[in-house]
Specification:
globular, eight-stranded mixed β-sheet, binds zinc ion, Rossmann fold, 9 helices
């Protein structure tokens, strides 16, 4: 076991500060005196006013709740299981720092922590999601912050960064990962939700997002592994409505009406899971 301290490698989010945060009683504080209270529920809100706005407008809370409802029904677990297998195979040291961007209600990080001794740090824009994650997995660290912006994580401090169908921030991921660190992302695979897309859009357009994801992460990352997960579920009416909300924020009324009329539908879930290694930095001249 390495000599890692038990303190999470958080950094201050006050503009142009970035100093390490240390826990002092019921708050985190930086050396410049900026403090962030830990909520009674156990999460900490590091969101700054200028970072409140997400790049994707919409009702994030409704989507988070819908996704949590589906996961609790066992829908969408194949990608979580694959993630746990991939990270377990990395042979991380006990206490390894794993950061989840867009951690939602904590399912992925919670499953990882059950399988390996990690310091899990979940980041989500939704305080409601962070509160629920902290309730379910009180041993992990849950942060409200905008994962599209500067991450509230110290440089070269994370062993693994995850982004499952969530925010992607290649430059910040490269900054916070240790040398040799891994980035694991999941993107919808061709065939994902094809039945729902046919219903909502009329025709399912197959898009392969893997090439775009690889291009977005070059030159800081090298692709090590790619695996596709599939699962299929016959969803009842309420789960279909939740899925519509989780997938199409602000779906058109006509599409919502077509889903409202359904009693059940067989739905395919497919994800491409990509494991990247942080490339060695170019030699300084
Ligand atoms: Zn500060």
């Amino acid at each position: 076991m390495n000599a890692r301290t038990a303190a999470p490698p958080l950094s201050c989010t006050v503009r142009a500060c970035g100093q390490p945060l240390t826990r002092r009683g019921g708050a985190y504080a930086c050396p410049r005196g900026h403090t962030f209270d830990i909520a009674r529920r156990g999460y900490v809100n590091l969101l700054q006013p200028q970072d409140r706005k997400s790049r994707t407008p919409g009702d994030a809370r409704m989507a988070v709740e819908a996704r949590a409802t589906l996961l609790s029904a066992g829908v969408g677990l194949a990608v979580v299981d694959e993630l746990v297998r991939r990270v377990a195979a990395m042979g991380l040291q006990p206490g390894a720092v794993v950061v989840d961007l867009g951690s939602g209600t904590g399912d992925a990080l919670g499953a990882l922590a059950a399988a390996a001794s990690i310091m899990g740090i979940g980041i989500d824009l939704s305080a409601a999601a962070a509160e629920e994650a902290a309730r379910r997995f009180p041993g992990l660290i849950w942060i409200v912050a905008n994962a599209d912006r500067r991450l509230p994580i110290l440089e070269r401090s994370a062993d693994v960064v995850l982004s499952l169908h969530g925010r992607r921030n290649p430059i910040e991921c490269a900054r916070v990962l240790k040398p040799g660190g891994r980035l694991v992302i999941a993107v919808p695979a061709p065939g994902d939700l094809v039945e729902l897309r046919e219903l909502v859009q009329g025709a399912a357009v197959e898009r392969d997002r893997v090439d775009a994801a690889i291009a977005a992460h070059a030159p800081s990352f090298d692709l090590e592994e790619r695996v596709t997960t599939h699962e299929s579920h016959r969803l009842g009416h309420e789960d279909l409505v939740a899925l519509l909300r989780a997938t199409y924020r602000g779906a058109r009324a006509s599409a919502a009406g077509r889903v409202e009329a359904l009693t059940s539908l067989e739905v395919t879930f497919a994800s491409d899971v990509l494991v990247f290694a942080l490339a060695a930095p170019p030699a300084r001249s």
